[in-house]
Design a protein that fits this description.
By secondary structure, the chain is mainly alpha-helical.
Length: about 350
């Protein structure tokens, strides 16, 4: 087991491990340097830090607040985070947004949910900060109607404000599409926001949106036909998403490569779920193995592949994948080890 592959979650600077840990380190580097934070898409769950601490058997204690780390153990980026948390009320909304984003990438959702918001969300940074805050509240306290209404209201503000940059408006519209598709609570609202997102893409001049954002757009709106069982339309949308993801990989320079790799993995995971829902076993295995190839240090990819192989009766291959996951370490070490022993060998 190698818990050090997740060291970025404890120092904001160790640039090794799975893609999501590398993204945390890159976020920490930009934060410390005062640069804009890269728009990474993936964030850990509310239980991530606790799961990692429990599985590393005391090597990493459960840190519930960045300031719980002794000052002598803090990296420069971590110390800056602690200092700015102490000075939260004196920070401008733009810097508060950076702190909130770093907290989210580290999985400190409860800390973020407790931070006071400015009295009025009068700038785009304040609106985005409020959105981060209510995402944290949803993760910590659950999907109550008040939190959901607040989140949707903030996304509506971003999607409808023509003074905001088009990429920000498109991201907000896609989030509303996905939220309504998953909840299935308002077909009319779903259709409206899908139309808004499509219009933002169709009317934008060439070059306004990056290949990564357009890839994320097609991946997001594919939730609509997926929940309706329109699998051919899902495939068409995800074909576009993957094509754009590969184009982004091909064109990415050093500063964008990790963003492109992260997006590509997200597309592959979505494709795996989509074809598995159709019962297409060969394609499902293809995409799950592709996830392992693009992010070999992430045990989650190995576990997803192993779980699928169990379903298809390939128990020896599944046990091998579970062993790979267990060797990599948290957050699924105990589950993977239990599966190695409980899944019987093939006759």
């Amino acid at each position: 087991m190698n818990p050090d592959r997740l060291a970025a979650y404890y120092d904001l600077s160790s640039s090794h491990g799975p893609l999501h840990a590398q993204a945390v380190a890159d976020t920490g580097r930009c934060y410390l340097a005062g640069l804009p934070l890269p728009p990474y898409q993936a964030f850990p769950s509310a239980s991530f830090r606790t799961a990692v601490a429990e599985e590393t058997k005391g090597r990493n204690t459960v840190v519930r607040d960045p300031r719980d780390h002794p000052a002598s153990d803090r990296s420069a980026a971590w110390q800056r985070l602690c200092s700015e948390l102490d000075a939260w009320q004196r920070l401008g909304a733009d810097q508060q947004l950076k702190v909130a984003t770093v907290l989210g990438h580290l999985g400190f959702w409860a800390v973020l949910a407790r931070l006071p918001l400015p009295e009025a969300a009068s700038t785009q940074e304040a609106v985005r900060l409020a959105h981060r805050h209510y995402v944290a509240r949803r993760l910590v306290f659950g999907k109550g109607p008040d939190v959901t209404d607040q989140l949707r209201g903030l996304l509506r503000v971003q999607a409808e404000d023509e003074s905001l940059p088009a990429p920000m408006r498109l991201g907000a519209a896609v989030n509303l599409v996905v939220d309504h598709a998953r909840s299935a609570d308002s077909p009319a609202a779903l259709a409206h926001w899908q139309s808004v997102a499509e219009t933002l893409v169709e009317r934008a001049p060439c070059g306004v949106y990056s290949d990564i954002l357009l890839s994320a757009y097609w991946r997001g709106v594919s939730f609509v036909p997926f929940h309706r069982g329109a699998h051919d339309r899902v495939r068409e949308m995800l074909d576009r998403s993957e094509h754009l993801a590969r184009a982004a990989l091909h064109a990415a320079g050093p500063g964008r490569m990790l963003l492109a790799q992260e997006n590509h993995r997200l597309v592959l995971m979505t494709r795996a779920r989509a074809v598995q829902a159709r019962g297409r076993r060969s394609e499902t295995e293809h995409y799950l193995r592709a996830c392992v190839r693009v992010d070999p240090q992430d045990p989650v990819s190995h576990v997803h592949l192993a779980d699928f192989l169990v379903l298809t009766g390939r128990r020896d291959d599944a046990r091998a994948s579970y062993r790979s996951a267990a060797a990599l370490g948290p957050p699924h070490t105990e589950y993977a080890l239990s599966q190695v022993t409980s899944v019987p060998a093939s006759p």
